[in-house]
Amino acid sequence: MTLKIDLNSDMGEGFGAWSIGDDVDRDIMPLISSANIAAGFHAGDPSTMIGTLRLASRHGVCVGVHPGFHDLVGFGRRHISASADELVNDALYQLGALRELAKLEGLKMHHFKLHGALFMHAARDKEFAEKLTSALAIVAPDLSIYCLANSAIDQAAKNAGLQRVHEFYADRDYDDEGNIVFVRKVKQLDPELVAKKVLRACQNNEVESVSGKIVTVKFDSICIHSDTPGAISLIKAVRSALDNACIEVAAP
Predict the structure, then answer these.
(1) pTM higher than 0.85, yes or no?
(2) Cα within 13 Å of Cα(4), Cβ side
(3) Which residues is 81 bridged to in the sheet?
(4) Are 125 and 148 spatial neighbours (Cβ–Cβ below 8 Å)?
(5) Which pairs count as long-range contacts for 198-202, CB under 8 Å and 24+ apart, including other chains?
(6) Whole-number Å distance between alpha carbons of 249 and 61
(7) Half-sphere exposure of 18 (CA within 13 A, CB side)
């Protein structure tokens, strides 16, 4: 049986005349199966969102919303102390913005994936995770939730009856408990080593932690962030390794 895996990346993370990372969305989009599109709070603006949706449509890539903290200056990587209700409202606001633009382009939304510090907050904070998934069960019950396995939002989404897609992070380190090591600035990575790491995870369900421990991982999707230095080289190496191993890249 052919192994299938999703390959996702964060897209549309510029703002107006400014671009983030290496500005390689046009090069990345043909290589992935799912795009997480910024919706204005940590990055993105209406015209950038429309352009990214059209690019995804052109390449048959599934689209999801990528809500973050209201933090353009910090690119959504700084924690903001706000109530769970306020953060849920912010996330739904961003979902609504992208969903309307997607509808204009004749596209159906596929998934929901939080960004940066808000993603990590939802992984830990039970109250926010439960309130967010309860709201999504009402306004977007058909969207899959991209998340860390066994996190607070993973459990909350399960309880709310939402589909979850567990992720593996090709361009992030793992600790001994199988959690990703969150950093604000990612160093340059070796594409060949990242590709080997991904293949090992796909074929053996394991990853080596920062201390050298072998940690078990189970996932449905591989994430490579488009703002990681040299992201296009990483994604090309990973896609080539998957193709050569006869692992089909397809959205869940």
Answers:
(1) yes
(2) 5
(3) none
(4) no
(5) 198/168, 198/170, 198/222, 198/238, 198/241, 198/242, 199/241, 199/242, 199/245, 201/168, 202/3, 202/5, 202/242, 202/245, 202/247
(6) 11
(7) 11
Is 66 in contact with 114 (CB distance < 8 Å)?
Answer: yes
Tens digit of pLDDT at every position of the chain (252 positions): 568 999 999 999 999 888 877 778 999 999 999 999 999 999 999 999 999 999 999 999 999 999 999 999 999 999 999 999 999 999 999 999 999 999 999 999 999 999 999 999 999 999 999 999 999 999 999 999 999 999 999 999 999 999 999 999 999 999 998 888 877 677 889 999 999 999 999 999 999 999 999 999 999 999 999 989 999 999 999 999 999 999 999 999
Is the separation of the CB atoms in 33 and 60 below 8 Å? no
Tokens of 229: 């230095």
Measured from the Cβ of residue 188, the count of other Cβ atoms closer than 10 Å reads: 10
CB 65 within 8 A of CB 52: no
Of 227, 3, 22, 200, nearest to 115 (Cα)? 227
Of the candidates 237, 119, 117, 112, the residue with the CA atom closest to the CA atom of residue 171:
237
> For residues 136 and 231, what is the distance between their CA atoms, to the nearest angstrom?
31
d(CA 132, CA 115): 14
Instruction: Tell me which DSSP letter residue 143 carries.
Output: S
Question: Rounded to an integer, what distance in angstroms lies between the CA atom of residue 108 and that of residue 119?
Answer: 23
CB 226 within 8 A of CB 21: yes
